[in-house]
Design brief:
Elements (H helix, E strand, L loop, with lengths): L3 E4 L9 H17 L2 E6 L9 H14 L5 E4 L4 H13 L3 E4 L3 H7 L26 E4 L6 E5 L3 E5 L1 H4 L4 E3 L7 H11 L4 E5 L6 H15 L14 E5 L19 H6 L4 H11 L11 H9 L3
Parallel strand pairs: 1-2, 2-3, 9-10
Antiparallel strand pairs: 4-5, 5-8, 6-7
Helix pairs in contact: 1-10, 6-7
The structure holds zinc ion.
The site of zinc ion has 5 residues, from loops.
């Protein structure tokens, strides 16, 4: 059976160059390893996801000529997420955290990457809690050894990276970590290719996926396969002239704005290959050429 790779944008804005590069890497990996491509719209954050962005993602991918074999949207899985949460809760693996953002910052150490390392203050809070709270998962104190196809080997303990982390946030929305782990499991994802900025999440996703799969194993209410660790590859990001990565907030035209300014898909593809260091100039490039160029360097 062929493996499955996913491209998983969040509809919290229109696609920009960073997404385009990710989509190209995903297609290149699919070409190299002969994989099916799955498009997953990650609209777990219902406070920020918008319908116009969901439509925009599909339109922009089609404009470039991207093809995928299957598609899903996270909001159609929320009932399933709740069932998984109930299973974890029944096993005592979830607890409410009432700490405010300010408390989290002042009461916990912060990692090198600026993340709060939650020390588990609310873990022993026995009373049922009212008022705003997130739900945190009890993450095992264990080093995760994992391999990245480009970056090599890592040994990381999520307990020391971030501690028990939220699977539902204070606004009642499913978190990225929880949603992505369940969907990757449920959708049989075998290959994960994504930007380097998410590399830091890998160990905690491996730990949480294992926990979810083990907890749900054999329960027909939450049919999930046993956990098989996917292959990971985290690709370099496009940086601006000062070396800073481009993000939705800080930058940069959406692809749709470029399109409205009269750019063709081929021009934008040439431009992105140039910016990502695959070409020495920004000669227009077809989608097939762009994918083949990146596949040749994987
Ligand atoms: Zn707390």
């Amino acid at each position: 059976m062929p493996g499955i790779i996913r491209f998983a944008p969040s509809p919290t804005g229109f696609l920009h160059e960073g997404h385009l590069l990710s989509a190209l890497y995903v297609c290149a990996a699919a070409k190299k390893w002969d994989l099916k491509i799955h498009l997953r719209i990650e609209d777990h954050d219902q406070g920020r996801a918008r319908k116009e962005y969901i439509d925009g993602i599909r339109e922009d991918l089609a404009w470039f000529g991207f093809k995928y074999d299957s598609e899903s949207i996270q909001s159609s899985h929320f009932d399933f997420f709740q069932k998984v949460l109930d299973k974890l809760t029944a096993k005592g693996l979830v607890y409410p955290c009432t700490c405010s953002r300010k408390q989290l910052q002042s009461e916990n150490p912060v990692s090198e990457t600026g993340e709060v390392i939650y020390q588990g203050k609310c873990r022993t809070q026995a009373a049922p809690c009212s008022g705003p709270h997130s739900l945190r998962v009890v993450i095992p104190d264990k080093v995760i050894n994992w391999h990245d196809e480009r970056l090599g080997d890592f040994a990381e303990n999520p307990k020391n990276q971030c501690g028990d982390f939220p699977i539902r946030d204070r606004d009642g929305f499913w978190t990225y970590q929880f949603a992505v782990c369940i969907d990757d499991l449920a959708e049989g994802i075998t290959h994960i290719v994504r930007g380097e900025d998410i590399r830091n999440s890998t160990a905690r996703q491996i730990a949480l996926s294992q926990l979810i799969a083990d907890t749900c194993q054999g329960d027909p209410d939450v049919p999930l396969p046993p956990y098989t660790r996917p292959l990971y590859l985290h690709h370099p990001l496009i940086v601006d002239s000062s070396g800073k990565k481009l993000s939705k907030r800080e930058h940069a035209y959406s692809l749709r704005q470029d399109k409205d300014r009269g750019k063709s898909p081929q021009e934008l593809l040439g431009q992105i290959l140039y910016k990502a260091g695959f070409l020495s100039d920004n000669t227009p490039t077809t989608l097939e050429q762009a994918i083949a160029t990146i596949a040749g360097r994987l």
